[in-house]
Amino acid sequence: MDRRSFLTGTLALTAAGIPALTAPGAYAASAAAPAPTLPPREDMVAVLRRVADQWIGAHPGGGDNLWANATLMSGLMALYRLTSDVTYLNYVTGWAQAHSYGLNGGTGTRDADNQCAGQAYFDLYDLAPADSKIAAIESCLHTMTYVNQVNKDDDWWWDDALHMAMPQFARLGVLRGDSGYFGKLHRLYTHTKSAEGGPGLYDPATGLWYRDKNFLPGGIVSPSGRPVVWSRGNGWVAGAHTKVLKTLPAGQADVPEYRDTLRRLVTAVAAVQRTDGFWNVNLADPNHFPGPETSGTAFFLYGTAYAVVSGLVDSATYLPVAARAWNGLVATAVHPDGVLGYVQKVGDRPDSSQPVTYDSTADFAVGGFLLAGTEAATLTTPGTPGPTPGTYALRARINNRYVTAENAGASPLIANRPTAQAWETFTLTVTSSTNITLRAHANNLYVTAENAGASPLIANRTTAQAWETFQLVTNPNGSVSLRAQANAKYVTAANAGASPLIATAPTIGTWEQFDLIPL
């Protein structure tokens, strides 16, 4: 059977003898439809804190360094970057130190599950660089890329593996300036996508993925004879692409493929979202263990929110998809005390760890929920009014210095002035509910994320287009961050403010926080 005719468009089945699926609206039992708009950011942060705090309180020891717990740590680091609350940083740091920043299976492991801990180690390195924090993961990936069986590219035989290991190859390549890691990443990815099991696990007709070769056409099907397209497996794929795209330079050769693949996945799952905001465990059969499931839903929210922020999909169409997912999760899965329920625990298919109930939870799902919520929060407006158009100065939190259009605007922006004068003054124009432009008073030109964000910010444009547009993110601590539309990266006061501003940060930390001061 030709797998390319096994699934189509919105998951209608055209393969011989298999009827089309029901309409997306029939995918959920009767339930109140969640709102298609996100709540204020403060409300979202409060829910994220409640879920994170409950898990930390119930698991004070930190736990092992296997993939499930490592995914939790990735989510906690995302929450730390959003809130600057050291509670979350300290918990992850204690966990990493307890494992000596090591990997299960040692540095010789090729198992993506064992490599997942490296994501949190890179997060901790970014905050306070020390080679000891990434020595194990770097040695592991270096061995795979340059030393041992360098032409072996079939290690990722299941789609979960993409989330567990893709981001670390991307981050090491960026950190070391070594494109060899990008190449190895893409070869491993290509095998999974286009060769594993024969045709590969990706179905180009639909944009969805089979979990492993056992579920390819001719293999395992649901009790009603429909395909098994596992929700969480596709969620892992969404998470992998999101993290990689947050890391890689916009001009890296494989970025267009990763962007298109995530776009197609996000649009495909939107078509089969349940009316309660969740997704079923089998995307191709609504009657195969029907009901809300949190982990797959969380990762679809993560990928969809990023796709909206980065312009991969239309905001008017897909922001409501993200909002319904968030609101559904909060209304149905989050307990009053912060326990996250309706989680399908460890498995590889819809049948695994059934039944999924209000009380079933897991560490990796909490991590996915935190990743999803922190990403979705960037799409919200704060509960208090945002800035109005006018004249402002920007002061970097990292060194308490004002951003200046250096040399009357002829040089890149840098945060190095103790007071705000003409060169440190900007006209802010609001272009949408979240987007702004900045025009320097030093030369009356617009600030641009030069070279699609690859070069420092500089005020040298006479008109404002995409490179001159920034999403203004209001942080819970009252600071603001700027996310460049040129590459969906945050503007950072590089080198603790000693270097020019540049849009290269995938997430918000102290270097990416500024005070917006009206003049």
Structural description of this entry:
With 519 residues, the chain is an alpha+beta fold. It folds into 2 domains: 3-31 and 51-377, Alpha/alpha barrel (Glycosyltransferase); 390-518, Trefoil (Trefoil (Acidic Fibroblast Growth Factor, subunit A)), CATH 2.80.10.50. The chain contains 13 helices and 14 strands. The strands form 5 sheets. It has a 6-stranded antiparallel sheet with strand order 11-10-7-6-3-14, with no helix packed on it. A two-stranded antiparallel ribbon has the order 1-2. Helix 7 runs parallel beside helix 9. The longest helix has 18 residues, at 41-58. It is globular and about 70 Å long. The termini are far apart. The model is unreliable at 1-30 (pLDDT under 50).
List keywords for this structure.
two-stranded antiparallel sheet; single chain; Trefoil (Acidic Fibroblast Growth Factor, subunit A); 2 domains; disordered N terminus; globular; 519 residues; alpha+beta; Glycosyltransferase; 6-stranded antiparallel beta sheet; 37% helix; 13 helices
Gist of the model:
37% of the residues lie in helices and 12% in strands. It is α+β, with helices and mostly antiparallel strands and 519 residues long. GO terms for molecular function: hydrolase activity.
